[in-house]
Amino acid sequence: MTAPVFDALGDPNRLRIVTRLCEGGPCSTSQVAQVIPVTRQAAAKHLQLLEAVGLVSSTRRGRERIWEVQTRPLAEAGDYLAVLSRRWDATIGRLRAHVEDGS
Q1: What are 10-58's pLDDT values in tens digits?
Q2: pLDDT (tens digit, 9 = 90+) per residue, 47-99?
Q3: N or C: which end of the chain has fewer CB atoms below 10 A?
Q4: Would you identify the CATH topology of the domain 3-101?
């Protein structure tokens, strides 16, 4: 189901977190908190929500929690967007053909 993924990514801070993890690889909660303008506790809550929808996972390393992105939900969301894009392309193609035939 892609709706929870899109909902989670609809928040700018969570989108920044996922972007950071995609571009920079795994990092600690403290490092994530440096990427977004919120407290470490707020960053942890964002990360927990992202984990709940399957976008990130974490492991313990000493006292730190290390987070990394999970690509499968992103791939599924991308596949869904590709299907929508093809549908829109087909709809626009039919509209274009109708307009051109009616001229």
Answers
A1: 999 999 999 999 999 999 999 999 888 889 999 999 999 999 999 999 9
A2: 999 999 999 999 999 999 999 999 999 899 889 888 888 888 777 878 888 88
A3: C
A4: Arc Repressor Mutant, subunit A (1.10.10)
Backbone phi, then psi, for 66, in 5-degree steps? -105, 130
Kind plus residue range of the DSSP H or E element containing 27: strand 27-28
The full DSSP string for 72-86 is HHHHHHHHHHHHHHH
Q: What is the pLDDT of residue 67?
A: 97
Q: Is the dihedral of CA 49, 7, 75, 34 positive or negative?
A: negative
pLDDT at position 1 over 70:
no
Domain residue extents for the chain: 3-101
